Amino acid sequence: EVQLVESGGGLVQAGGSLRLSCAASGFTFSDYVIGWFRQAPGKEREGVSCYNSRDDKTYYSDSVKGRFTISRDNARNTVYLRMNSLKPEDTAVYYCQADRLPGFVHHGFVGIWFLGRTDFGSWGQGTQVTVSS
To answer: What is the Cα–Cα distance from 3 to 50, expressed in whole angstroms?
Structure first.
């Protein structure tokens, strides 16, 4: 059973940094795409960043590109999201997700496929990130 536990959120001033962690268990990293989503109050959940374990490629939404970095630690079965230059509009609950990469998804569309998904079966509790102005 895939289990994902998010942590590392907090309150930070605009321009500051945070590192989120996603501790994973129940699956093998090398078979999965793992990523981060966020949901701000009153808004739909949106994909932020993901990592394709098959080719080590990373993907980012336009809103965080250049400021956020996704990485993994295989020994710890953990995926991180380093967030720099935080803005008040980054305030949201951040969630981690993972899924196998199906064969019909072309390697050039992994980020679009994963970050655009709305059909994940369940979500964890997430971790709150609040950026003050």
So the answer is: 17
